[in-house]
Amino acid sequence: MLELTAGQISMGLVAADKASALRLLAELLEGDGLVAPGYLAGLEAREAQGSTFLGQGIAIPHGTPQTRDLVITTGVRLMQFPDGVDWGGGQIVYLAIGIAARSDEHLRLLQVLTRALGEADLGSELRRAETPDDILKLLQSAPQELALDDQLIGLGVPVEDYDELVLQGGRLLRRAECVGGSFAAALLQGEPLPLGDGLWWLHSDQAVQRPGLAYLTPEKPLRYLGQPLNGLFCLASLGDAHLALLERLCALLIEGRGRELARATQRRAVLEALGGEVQPDWPSLRLVLANAHGLHARPAKELVQLAKSFDGEIRLRVADSAVAAVSAKSLSKLLGLGVRRGQVIELLAEPAIADAALPALKAAIEQGLGEEVEPLPTADAAVSQELCETPPPTAPAAGSQLQAVPAAPGIAVGPAHIHLCKEFDYPLRGESPDVERERLQQAIGQVRVDIEGLVLRSEAKAIRDIFITHLEMLADPELGDDVDARLKQGESAAAAWMAVVESAATQQEGLHDALLAERAADLRDIGRRVLAQLCGVQEAPEPAEPYILVMDEMAPSDVARLDRNRVAGILTARGGATSHSAIVARALGIPALVGAGAGVLLLEPRTPVLLDGQRGRLVVCPDEGQLQRAHQEQESRQRRLQLADTHKLEPALTRDGHRVEICANLGDSAGAAKAVAQGAEGVGLLRTEFIFMSLPQAPDLATQETEYRRVFDALDGRPLVARTLDVGGDKPLPYWPVVEEENPFLGVRGVRLTLQRPQLMETQLRALMQASQGRPLRIMFPMVGTVDEWRQARDMALKVAAEIPQADLQLGIMVEVPSAALIASVLAREVDFFSIGTNDLTQYCLAIDRGHPTLSAQADGLHPAVLQLIDLTVRAAHAEGKWVGVCGELAGDPLAVPLLVGLGVDELSLSAGGIAEVKARVREFSLSAARELAQDALALESAAAVRELAERF
Ligand code: PEP
Ligand code: MG
């Protein structure tokens, strides 16, 4: 991106006329190596097409698309002409900003400049400036307008306390592109100011990109510092942009109208009271901007001139962006939007002129606003361009075998049911409101018939309920009203329907209620069904027999919603074995293969496939022999499992009598009894965040205590290793807003987050300790990377334990951040145990996101680097007499079992369904042989080499 610096500015130049000024500029750009000789012709040609005078004594000379190839490096040079240069038509330029740009990199610079254009007497100040810094100050210090519009108001937000309300404020400002990621955290550190009537004011100037004000009211009455908390202003402060608002607010408060704000139920009313931006409810249309360099000065000028020819207001915005619509008659405002080629813009016009203005503006924009425009690539062209870069995926041929990532064991056979999120193509404008209304009703009617059929066919009540909810949504009168309003404005049925559905879904997601968030997914689901009807796209019907569900990627919630009686197996094009969706698939016992490549999405619907979730193999159209072998294997695996099953309640002893403890990983309290019945000798990892996720709001002390007690009761004296909340990364809590981060896996996750919310952590510790009642409780903290984090968390636990004495309590950490493994010898002196989370340890050690769509298949925990970290951890722990478990997915991988045991791991914790098999595996080898195997593996070069070695063991 182009930035302005003092080094780019030449002061005190003299030019007799525009031609000489352009020559000077060309010499400067060429001398500094930004352009090749010949650029001057481009500068001149551009001026001949239309003056680059911007206003306020500034011109922005630049080349034409034809001279773009002469640009060596994109850059700018500024030249001050204190005596002025006539730029034509009596327009005097004191500052020429020469731009050498290959594409639209300079749009951002124009955004900055155009803010300065609003300044009263900028031209003469630029003329008088004495140093480059003076010029910079003048250009950059222009006040920006305070953002305050519909989307910055949140009324009746469901939050539990002040902190959550502040985080929501930060979130609104972030969404409006006012602030960066660290703003909300800075806001939380601030001291709020009570304004009376339960209103509070809070501000921060950290990470502010443009000034903005968010206003929020909580859903239920809250208190803060002993006073009511009815409404909170969160200011992203930059310069003096907020002063006018502040004055207006003070006047409101003095007039005694604070209660009006505190009790407001309409965003519009708040905006009107505060003087914010109220979006007009005008006819609008959308279209894509095709100009190569975006809406830069020249086309923007054309647009302004055309807009000015209409006697009424016209506004323009980037569609679906956070930035409010601006007047299409203001050049600086238009440039300030920084619209790029390919972006969809929305034009709004006052009803009195809309019929004439909108089509005229649309035609002018489509014709390029005075520039030649290359048509945007169509979807097909974009695809073919992509295809040139990477070989096109092809559907695997009948009889072919594919290797993919084994995600959940088991063999499954069935017809492929391809579930794809298709892109639909539809016109934005409709024929007439009546025609479009009729179309929509027909489409909705057809979808209703389809869903009614699904209701009749669904045996599981939970699934039937989902479809019944879909039927209710289809009949929702509010959706209908909103759609109708859009149809009346001339939108097509598809455009109106999708805009309303998307906006309702987004609103529901914003409420941070798990149930409503699910409803948002349901809404989108029916939205797409209706859209498919409108676009005449047939979604493949579900096969009647159990099928193999083929998807691009799957989210944990997708898997959790599957009907196990209908889905025999899962196959995805992308994804890895330790993503949480794979973990859910394993827990549900559905064989799954992930990361099979895009080709599988091209399989013909109902193609018979055979999926081996153990070996990671897929066979397309298996022949009789292959099916038979699969059945034989299935049977022999079944026999092996049955045999293992008969010994599942016995301890796992190696041939030479070394005992390995085998425990279960749990994501809910209900599974504990079943896990014990499946041979679990305890719970080695209770993922408590899954309990939190299954509830519509954060569970209170009593609810948590009941959940944990249920696990203890089922364990009947066996130990419970409970992990404190591991929220963050790919496990956000819908009702618990956190600051958005670029890299959530490297952000405020696990213990880092709970240490920031000590109250929450303390409640959880209290609930665990109250539930234990003398039974063996092990508490571990996730994502510990430093001794300090461990000590802080430990001290909190010890404080609670001092109040609720424990007969058998151990405190430990998960080793899943490489730093913890590397300082294990220090930590081992203080902890009671380590539990190695190989899923995260692998992702952080190999720097591969565990959910990465294409790379995560390589995130193999048997990589020698990961094994080295495990080795280090075990040695450090044993030197201090502490025990070590492994609770990542590696613990359930039969190939990894002898390696982990050989490295000295004392406990393996895995999905309960795999316990019998892992116990049987332990009984197959001796500890001494396993040790040798592990030592050999440590010296190998790759995960593949380790797997090969382990296969031969
Ligand atoms: C791990 O990281 O290995 C682990 C067990 O924790 P989770 O998979 O829940 O992040
Ligand atoms: Mg983890």
TrEMBL record:
<keyword id="KW-0479">Metal-binding</keyword>
<dbReference type="InterPro" id="IPR036618">
    <property type="entry name" value="PtsI_HPr-bd_sf"/>
</dbReference>
<keyword id="KW-0808">Transferase</keyword>
<dbReference type="GO" id="GO:0046872">
    <property type="term" value="F:metal ion binding"/>
</dbReference>
<keyword id="KW-0597">Phosphoprotein</keyword>
<dbReference type="GO" id="GO:0008965">
    <property type="term" value="F:phosphoenolpyruvate-protein phosphotransferase activity"/>
</dbReference>
<dbReference type="InterPro" id="IPR000032">
    <property type="entry name" value="HPr-like"/>
</dbReference>
<dbReference type="InterPro" id="IPR015813">
    <property type="entry name" value="Pyrv/PenolPyrv_kinase-like_dom"/>
</dbReference>
<dbReference type="InterPro" id="IPR002178">
    <property type="entry name" value="PTS_EIIA_type-2_dom"/>
</dbReference>
<dbReference type="GO" id="GO:0005737">
    <property type="term" value="C:cytoplasm"/>
</dbReference>
<dbReference type="GO" id="GO:0016301">
    <property type="term" value="F:kinase activity"/>
</dbReference>
<dbReference type="InterPro" id="IPR035895">
    <property type="entry name" value="HPr-like_sf"/>
</dbReference>
<dbReference type="InterPro" id="IPR000121">
    <property type="entry name" value="PEP_util_C"/>
</dbReference>
<dbReference type="Pfam" id="PF00359">
    <property type="entry name" value="PTS_EIIA_2"/>
</dbReference>
<dbReference type="InterPro" id="IPR018274">
    <property type="entry name" value="PEP_util_AS"/>
</dbReference>
<keyword id="KW-0963">Cytoplasm</keyword>
<keyword id="KW-0460">Magnesium</keyword>
<feature type="domain" description="PTS EIIA type-2">
    <location>
        <begin position="2"/>
        <end position="142"/>
    </location>
</feature>
<feature type="domain" description="HPr">
    <location>
        <begin position="282"/>
        <end position="372"/>
    </location>
</feature>
<keyword id="KW-0670">Pyruvate</keyword>
<dbReference type="Pfam" id="PF02896">
    <property type="entry name" value="PEP-utilizers_C"/>
</dbReference>
<dbReference type="InterPro" id="IPR050499">
    <property type="entry name" value="PEP-utilizing_PTS_enzyme"/>
</dbReference>
<dbReference type="InterPro" id="IPR008731">
    <property type="entry name" value="PTS_EIN"/>
</dbReference>
<keyword id="KW-0813">Transport</keyword>
<comment type="similarity">
    <text>Belongs to the PEP-utilizing enzyme family.</text>
</comment>
<dbReference type="InterPro" id="IPR040442">
    <property type="entry name" value="Pyrv_kinase-like_dom_sf"/>
</dbReference>
<dbReference type="InterPro" id="IPR036637">
    <property type="entry name" value="Phosphohistidine_dom_sf"/>
</dbReference>
<keyword id="KW-0598">Phosphotransferase system</keyword>
<dbReference type="Pfam" id="PF05524">
    <property type="entry name" value="PEP-utilisers_N"/>
</dbReference>
<dbReference type="InterPro" id="IPR016152">
    <property type="entry name" value="PTrfase/Anion_transptr"/>
</dbReference>
<dbReference type="GO" id="GO:0009401">
    <property type="term" value="P:phosphoenolpyruvate-dependent sugar phosphotransferase system"/>
</dbReference>
<keyword id="KW-0418">Kinase</keyword>
<dbReference type="InterPro" id="IPR008279">
    <property type="entry name" value="PEP-util_enz_mobile_dom"/>
</dbReference>
<keyword id="KW-0762">Sugar transport</keyword>
<dbReference type="Pfam" id="PF00381">
    <property type="entry name" value="PTS-HPr"/>
</dbReference>
<dbReference type="Pfam" id="PF00391">
    <property type="entry name" value="PEP-utilizers"/>
</dbReference>
<protein>
    <recommendedName>
        <fullName>phosphoenolpyruvate--protein phosphotransferase</fullName>
        <ecNumber>2.7.3.9</ecNumber>
    </recommendedName>
</protein>
<dbReference type="InterPro" id="IPR006318">
    <property type="entry name" value="PTS_EI-like"/>
</dbReference>
